[in-house]
Amino acid sequence: MTTQSPAEPVPHFTPTATEPAETLLQQVTEQVMRCTDDEAAVFAFDGASPGTPAAAAALGRLLSTHAIQLVAGCPLMAFVTGTEPDPHWRAAYPPRPSSLFAEFEFLQALYGPGEGDPFEALATLRLRAEEELGC
User: Hey, where are the domains in the chain?
Assistant: First the structure.
C-alpha cells in the first residue's frame, strides 16, 4: 500500500453525473461569490490545487478577512481536504444580498446568461451592462 505525502496534491475532484461540466474550482468560485463581494477573495484560489498547502492558505486568507461559516461537504472544505463536495451544498449557502453572486443573478436576469463559470459570466454581463448604459 502506498501513501500520499502531504506535499503531493490530492487527485482532482471528478464531477458527478448530475453536474458533468462543473469542476471543484468552479464550485469553490461560486461559493466564495455567494459569501462575499470581494473579487480578490475569488482570485486567491487561482493556481491552487485541491488538497495542497496553497489551498489551505487561500482558505485561511479568506476566513481571516470574511465572516464565512463552513459546512461539512461545502466546496471550500472539499478543496482543502481533497474530497468531493456534497451535491446539495448550495442549500446551506444562499447568496448574500450584496454578494458577487447576487450581482451575477441580477445581471443574468436582465441580460441573459453569461459565458463560463459564474465569475467569468459576471465579467461579461458587466460589460453588456456598460455597453447598454453607455459607460
Answer: 24-133
